[in-house]
Structures are given as structure tokens and as C-alpha cells.
Amino acid sequence: MVKTFYTEENKPFPNNPLPILYYPKVVANLLNETDPAHCVQDLFEKNGYTNGWVNGIFSYHHFHSNTHEVLACVAGTATVQLGGPDAQMHSFSKGDVLFLPAGVAHKRIDASPDFKIVGAYPDGLEPDMQKGKAEDYEAIKQAVAHVNQPENDPVEGKDGAVIKYWA
């Protein structure tokens, strides 16, 4: 079952009127494999999300104005803040997936020592790194508003939550 979270504009973080999609424990079945990160990357790639990586979440607020981003926790736990300063904090743990619309600020507040995630982008886009310091905020907001909806959901493919909640 997918849960949704909404963020509001929080200057200098535009966020997005589209909901953040949270899939609790949706990739847990892939984490008992020999290389769980690779298995999750394969799932994302099958659904058109490439340019993947394995690492963590930065400890400062940041967002991408040119692409959406999917994050899957493959080890450990973390608390993440979604939407910029003073926004709500969420638990993110092994097996969970977050799909962040373009413009949504995110930051790791704390994490277990073994915290590790897989990230990827629709159509393998190269994300820009925005830290809320852009000189032309309105141009950034416009860029976020013009990011295309992906054809597939990163986890569920053609009939997934992206189609249901973002159409």
C-alpha cells in the first residue's frame, strides 16, 4: 500500500503540489539476495529509472529542479525531513521506497551506521543539485513545474502509484 505526503512551498525550496509517494517495505523481498542494492537497481531499471547509485542522503536540504528521484532503503534506518526547514520528519527504513517529485527538499536528520540507499531517476536524467541558494527562485519554480510525469511508476511499472496519484 502506498502512502502519500504533501509538501508546501517553503522558500527557498519550491517543493511540489504532487504528493511524495511512500511505499513501506515494498522492496523487502529483494533484500535477502546476495547483492540487494543491485536487485533494487534492476527493479528500477526495468521500470525506466536509470542513472542509479548507492550511497546515503545528504545531511543538508537539497532538491532537484530537473527530475524526480526514487530512493530505496536497502540497509539500516534514517530520519529524513521532506520539504525543507520546519517541515515534517519521516522514518525511512530497510525495504522502504520514497518517490520524490522534482523540487521537494530532502535532508537526512540522523541515520544508523549501516544506512544505505539506492537512488535513480526517470529516463536516466542527470539531476541538478539545488541547495536553495539559486539567485532566480522563480525560474527554479518554473523548471520544477515543467518536469514531465514519468511513464512508469519506479516500483509498480505501468499501473503503479505514479499513474494513480500524479495523473
Protein model, in words:
The protein is an alpha+beta fold and 167 residues long. It has a single domain (3-166), classed as Jelly Rolls (Sandwich), CATH 2.60.120. Helix content is 16%, strand content 29%. It is built from three helices and nine strands, in the order ββαβββββββαα. It has helices at 36-46, 137-145, 161-166; strands at 3-5, 20-23, 49-55, 69-75, 77-82, 89-93, 97-100, 106-111, 116-122. The chain has a six-stranded antiparallel beta sheet. A hairpin with a 6-residue loop joins strand 5 and strand 6. The longest helix is centred in the N-terminal third of the chain and has 11 residues, at 36-46. The two termini are 18 Å apart. The mean pLDDT is 96.
Q: What would the average pLDDT be, to the nearest integer?
A: 96
Poorly predicted parts: none
CATH C-level name: Mainly Beta
Q: Beta-strand percentage?
A: 25-35%
CATH topology value: Jelly Rolls
User: In percent, how helical is the residue content?
Assistant: 10-25%
Number of strands: 9
Numbering strands along the chain, what is their spatial order in the largest sheet?
1-2-7-4-9-3
Radius of gyration, in Å, reads: 15 Å
Tell me the CATH architecture: Sandwich
Q: What order do the SSEs take from the amino end to the carboxyl end, as H and E?
A: EEHEEEEEEEHH
Summarize the main sheet.
6 strands, antiparallel
Number of domains: 1
Distance between the termini: 18 Å
The gross shape turns out to be globular
Instruction: Please report the number of helical segments.
Output: 3
Structural class: alpha+beta
What is the fourth-level CATH superfamily? Jelly Rolls
